[in-house]
């Protein structure tokens, strides 16, 4: 069996002295150990002790140029079979969880493609603090093995969980981790979607409608659609990120305005239609709002009362303007007009029919039968005269970014180049 190689990162804490015993155990088991000491760790154990026990050079600084010549920090982080952090202090765990890399130890932890095992040690309150527990959960979610600390009396006199596990227990966890260690850990943080061009909508104007509309019946009641506004807001955000000048006409939703987006809040379909008209001209319009098809024909100025007779009041409805269809016919029709369709069955057939009925260029159809509205993901089909482009289920942000790429290409084909 080839010799197992451990990269041992020693954080600063009173428990750092136990790392000396750990190095001894690992060497006795025939493993190669390379030690990295944090600046705080150096206060508790000396590089000399660790070098003597590990029979290897001890690394302390990112800026040791000689080491860069002998061995780059990337190589150092990857030539091990397992990276062990012991003691893993609250500070080190926080830095690992947030991906900070401001010294040699944290840089190695961010750059490594090997499994990582952390043995925490800290004061009981620090261990139990919500921030530390959050960091531990993040790290575990990222695939880092975080051992549970021992419980007992602490150097500071308090009692509880937070003591560094005994070196034998860490050695055992190392043996287990090595038994399952892959040659390299796959990246988990792949972006959902990587834009292939920088700000592809720069110089374009994009209009977005989002959210539901509320159609008042009386001062306390209204007719509405189920719509969280999340997809529309994600689209407005992605359009702004892609460099466009964005006007978001939003129905009543409690969502923050995305950076760089101009937002106009409306309540009813008619207000939305007015604001859309006022927002023209626009190069593209993306109508994501779930507009109420009908409104109450008469709005009561006062709350309608139950009169105790058991008779229900009549509710006459009037049809709302179809904003999308109206825009398609207007003299200021945007070069690219996109509608949305939430369907529960025959998604693509219904979308094709809607494309013709509304007079728009694309319908972004999504099947809401399996997934209730308001979720975080969407599986969409872009239906146009040219056919159907079906995408995998993606987070709404990823759908939005991918849509911006497609819109940018289409606008480049339909319009002269955007102004610089
Ligand atoms: O007819 P349906 O409501 O299914 O059409 C959905 C598409 O039409 C969406 O893009 C929506 O924003 C738009 N729409 C509109 N005005 C309406 C109704 C729907 O702009 N009154």
UniProtKB/TrEMBL annotation:
InterPro entries: CoaB-like_sf, CoaBC, DNA/pantothenate-metab_flavo_C, Flavin_trans-like, Flavoprotein. Keywords: Decarboxylase, Flavoprotein, FMN, Ligase, Lyase, Magnesium, Metal-binding, Multifunctional enzyme. Residues 1-205 are annotated as: Phosphopantothenoylcysteine decarboxylase. Binds 1 FMN per subunit. One of its GO terms (molecular function) is phosphopantothenoylcysteine decarboxylase activity. CTP binds at residues 293, 303, 321-324, 340, 354, 358. Pathway: Cofactor biosynthesis; coenzyme A biosynthesis; CoA from (R)-pantothenate: step 3/5; Cofactor biosynthesis; coenzyme A biosynthesis; CoA from (R)-pantothenate: step 2/5. The active site is at 156 (proton donor). GO terms for cellular component: phosphopantothenoylcysteine decarboxylase complex. It comes from the Bacteria. In the C-terminal section; belongs to the PPC synthetase family. This is Coenzyme A biosynthesis bifunctional protein CoaBC.
């Amino acid at each position: 069996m080839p010799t197992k190689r451990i990269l041992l990162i020693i954080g600063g804490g009173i428990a750092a002295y136990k790392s000396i015993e750990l190095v001894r155990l690992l060497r006795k088991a025939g493993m190669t150990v390379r030690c990295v000491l944090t600046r705080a760790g150096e206060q508790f154990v000396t590089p000399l002790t660790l070098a003597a026990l590990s029979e290897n050079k001890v690394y302390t600084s990112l800026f040791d140029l000689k080491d860069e010549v002998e061995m780059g920090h990337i190589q150092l982080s990857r030539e091990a079979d397992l990276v062990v952090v012991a003691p893993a202090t609250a500070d080190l765990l926080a830095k690992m969880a947030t991906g900070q890399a401001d010294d040699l130890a944290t840089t190695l932890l961010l750059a490594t493609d090997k499994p990582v095992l952390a043995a925490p040690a800290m004061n009981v309150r620090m261990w139990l603090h919500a921030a530390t527990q959050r960091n531990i959960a993040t790290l575990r979610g990222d695939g880092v093995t975080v051992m549970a600390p021992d419980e007992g009396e602490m150097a500071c006199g308090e009692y509880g969980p937070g003591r560094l596990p005994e070196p034998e227990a860490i050695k055992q966890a190392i043996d287990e981790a090595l038994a399952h260690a892959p040659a390299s850990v796959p990246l988990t943080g792949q972006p959902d979607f990587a834009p292939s061009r920088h700000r592809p909508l720069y110089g374009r104007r994009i209009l977005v409608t989002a959210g539901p509309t509320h159609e008042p019946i009386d001062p306390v009641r209204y007719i509405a659609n189920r719509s969280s506004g999340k997809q529309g807001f994600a689209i407005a955000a992605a359009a702004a990120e892609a460099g466009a000048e964005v006007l978001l006409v939003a129905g009543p939703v409690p969502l923050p305005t995305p950076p760089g987006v101009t937002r106009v809040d409306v309540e009813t379909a008619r207000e939305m239609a007015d604001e859309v008209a006022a927002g023209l001209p626009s190069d593209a319009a993306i109508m994501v709002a779930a507009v109420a098809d009908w409104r109450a024909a008469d709005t009561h100025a006062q709350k309608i009362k139950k009169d105790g007779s058991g008779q229900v009041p009549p509710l006459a409805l009037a049809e709302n303007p179809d904003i999308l269809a109206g825009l398609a016919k207007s003299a200021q029709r945007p070069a690219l007009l996109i509608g949305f369709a939430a369907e529960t069955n025959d998604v693509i057939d219904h979308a094709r029919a809607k494309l013709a009925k509304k007079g728009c260029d694309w319908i972004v159809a999504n099947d809401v039968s399996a997934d209730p509205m308001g979720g975080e993901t969407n599986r969409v089909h872009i239906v146009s005269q040219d056919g159907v482009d079906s995408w995998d289920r993606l987070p709404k942000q990823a759908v939005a970014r991918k849509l911006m790429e497609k819109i940018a290409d289409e606008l480049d084909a339909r319009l002269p180049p955007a102004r610089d």
